[in-house]
Amino acid sequence: MTAILGLNAYHGDAAAALLIDGGLVAAAEEERFNRVKHCAGFPELAAAWCLADAGLTVGDLDHVAVSRDPKANLGRKLLRTIRHGASARYLKARLENAAKVRDVRAALASAVGVGPDEVRAAVHNVEHHQAHVASAFFVSPFEEAAVLSVDGFGDFASTMLAVGRGNRFEVLDRVLFPHSLGIFYTALTQWLGFPKYGDEGKVMGLAPYGDPERHLDRMRDLVRLNGSAFELGLDYFTHDKEGVDMTWDEQTPSIGRIYSDRLVEAFGPAREPRGELTERQEDVAAALQAMLEEAYLHLVSELWERTHVPDICLAGGVALNAVANGRIRPETPFDGVYVQPAAGDSGTAVGSAYWVWNLELGRPRSFVMEHAYTGPGYSDDECAAALASAGLGSERLEDDALFPTVAERIAAGDVVGWFQGRMEFGPRALGNRSIVVDPRRPDMKDVLNARIKHREPFRPFAPSILAEATGEWFEQDYGSPFMVLVYKTRPEKRAEIPAVNHVDDTGRLQTVEERVNPRYHRLIGEFGKLTGVPVVLNTSFNENEPIVMTPEHAVETFQKTTMDVLVLGNHVVRRPDR
Which SS3 state, helix, strand or coil, does residue 9 take? Predict the structure, then answer.
């Protein structure tokens, strides 16, 4: 047996993943355990859980892989420091972070309560974007594929173009600091009044409300496409001269302002957080998204010209931009598209482990990541105990009664918390830690925002659809199991599912296959039998916090919101006053 623990450590979205003989047996983000969104630091709880879930001790590990390598691109880092300098505070923070990344033995030993000498595994530092590439290609269904990784920065790079064949990949090109599409998008997200780590997804939802043409020419001065990649108009940003003021403690990361006064001169005063959104800001958001898509597809097209292979794998935080992903198959020669469910930094825990298994050890590929259900699961007794401890009365229904009963409640307009099986890995709830409601009701977005989610009203909710019905409801039918592709809704179907049809007549859909998630598929199927609509609205089971992990988390969220029904496995709780 060969056991490999992969870690995303001392970086946002800390996570751990465990491989045994090339199979992914466990993976989870630290935030689900400690309840701190996008938690940085060392993923001590997630790592300890991965080992315990597999019945291993730290002494059973053969390899530990960390998705950061302080030596990567070192020459370019030193050259930049010599040319531009850096503040003493910035250098001190980066050196301290690098020291932690280089030696994770003590942190891992502490996480499981043993001495450092008991961590006998070989430790590997994997360049950040190589970990992204590995996370996308080595778990994909493709024997050969182009691979694109795009994010803010990791190990001094923001972008990597590669081609994978079998159990190897070749790096074709990198885009290095200070040029970054992730930085571009984050800077404008800050200007738009969304300063928190991870707020970029909000802007993707805002963009369809604006007119991109009013500011697109200016955006092309911020991002300048060249023959193979892109460059930033650095005068609009501060990171090249001042570095990135970013906290890397045990809490949610924070990024200081990275746009310059020139950007303010170009687009006007920045919006205050939670301030009123104006037409101008909607138009800037639209132009921002349009420029991101233009640059992203430019990179995709460059990969096609270099590889001429039919399939592409995508990773990095920018690969969570589902609108851009949805344009690849219709507008480029690529036929197959694979984006693993944790495309952002948490997924590098998986990628670093597979980098060791496939590249370092030369083992053949034997695993395809077809689902994201790699986190903790809970027994029927544990679900019952959580309800009893909270004093909630429940009814236990066998499956033949459970699914039609819950489908009837959804069709009647109830808000249902649906908690089943093992927790999802990655930022999306995919039917095991979901809130599920009727997509046919035009007011359901407002109901969810008022009673549960308390989100900005412009943000869309996602449809989960039976995979076999996708082509009847959307203009593309290629599978999207991880909710990372946006498709146009068919014109004749838009009025039938108004709660999940965005203002631009699109949906960021999840296609649900029976063999992958039979319970969620059955629930949607029962709803389809009742209504003729094989679609439900799916949003994550949380309220301004990380997605729930345990039955206790689910009960707590049920109690502090006005959710109508809670389903823990086969146990059903109905709120008595609704």
Answer: coil
Q: Is the pLDDT of residue 85 over 70?
A: no
| Residue 385's CATH number | 3.90.870.20
pLDDT classification of 93: cutoffs 50, 70, 90? low
Euclidean distance between CA atoms 130 and 291, whole angstroms:
26
Residues 111 and 84 in one domain: yes
Residue 353 lies in a domain: yes
- Token pair 């990567």 is found at 72
- Statement: residue 74 has pLDDT above 80: no
Question: What pLDDT shows up at residue 352?
Answer: 98
Task: Classify 154 in phi/psi space as left (phi over 0), alpha (psi -120 to 50) or beta.
Answer: beta
Domain count, the chain: 3
What's the rounded Cα separation, in Å, for the pair 151 and 274?
26
Instruction: Report yes or no on 457 lying in a domain.
Output: yes
| SS3 label, residue 155 | coil
157 and 91 belong to one structural domain: no
Predicted confidence at residue 98, as pLDDT, reads 56
- H helices present in 103-237, as ranges: 105-112, 128-137, 181-191, 200-206, 216-222
By the 8 A CB rule, do 201 and 456 touch? no
291 within 8 A of 274, measured Cβ to Cβ: no
DSSP 428-455: S--SSEEEEE-TT-TTHHHHHIIIII--
Helix axes 44-54, 105-112, angle to 10 degrees: 60
User: Per mean pLDDT, which range of 71-85, 354-368, 481-495 is the poorest?
Assistant: 71-85
Whether residues 11 and 97 share a domain: the answer is yes
Q: What are phi and psi of 550, to 5 degrees?
A: -100, 165
Per-residue model confidence as pLDDT tens digits over 332-370: 999 999 999 999 999 999 999 999 999 999 999 999 999
Last residue of a domain, one of 330, 360, 390: 360
Whether residue 86 is predicted with pLDDT greater than 70 in this model: the reply is: no
Burial per residue of 454-481, b for 16 or more beta-carbon CB atoms within 10 angstroms, e otherwise = ebeebbbbbbbbbbebbeebbbbebbbb
Backbone phi, psi, residue 341, to 5°: -65, -30
Distance CA 173, CA 231 (A): 14
Q: What is the pTM of this model?
A: 0.95
Q: Which residue has the higher pLDDT, 82 or 249?
A: 249
Given 3-state DSSP classes, what are the helix, strand and coil percentages for the chain, each rounded to the nearest 5? 40, 20, 40
The backbone region for 268, taken as left when phi is positive above 0, alpha when psi lies in -120 to 50, beta otherwise, is left
What is the model's pLDDT at position 104?
A: 87
For residues 195 and 25, give the distance between their C-alpha atoms in angstroms, rounded to a whole number. 35
- For residue 427, say if its preceding peptide bond is cis, omega within 30 degrees of 0: no
